[in-house]
Amino acid sequence: MDAQAIDKIQALVQASQIGHPGTDVPTMLVPEGYKLASLEKYQEAPSRYRGVFSTRSIEDFAEYANKQLEAEVFVDTDDMDAIAFFDLGNPEAPGHAEHRASLALQKTAPYRAVLSAHENAFGQKELAHWIEDWHAHIEGESTNGNLLSPKQLANMVRKIEIKAASERTHEEGDWNATRTGLDAIDASTGTDTPAVIRLTCLPYEGLPLRTFDLRVSILTDIDKPKVKLRVMGLEGIKEEIAKDFKDVLRANLDDDATLLLGNFSKQ
Asked: According to the model, what pLDDT value does residue 45 have?
């Protein structure tokens, strides 16, 4: 037997003699060069249930959670996601938090289109194509209060003209502005102009329909007209959508499930 083997045997003997190091957490001394190996994979069944269920569907998330004996659900309304723990336990009887489900909502295509259009300046052809792409969700309103179909909206956008007039003005509107002290710019499409593009869609699957009013204005300080869209009250709508998320999730979960706003991480 070589010296290295003798040293290892002596280290093991010393570790066994020390026994419990006196910590609150079960521990033992292991000599350098050794590692712990789990035999769980050789057992007939695992020592405890582990697994993570991931989905983008509120309905499926709730269905999975409702099948468990207990569920602690934490909802993040900023990121529009949630996580449920089924073995979290409590301070008196803590669990390992190894069985859980995660929900991450995904913006629908029309909602992503609304967000990308916000505060964006479109060329005439570009905006007309945007309206045509989302025509199933769109209606419009003109400056005279007339309802406009997607086709009428697209045609109006294509017909925008910019005219210069030598007059002094200090006013600025959605469809006119002053370029210099004497040179005023006016944009029009004829007798009427589009004022609002109204797009209705599901922001996320499983949440209620939302209508977004996009105010139409034109940038007249350039030779080639650009049409700018702005979602009115966007931040307030986002807060309402976040509240819808919590309310819909609560309605789908059983009464014995705990639902809290915030995040939880196991230390």
From this structure: 84
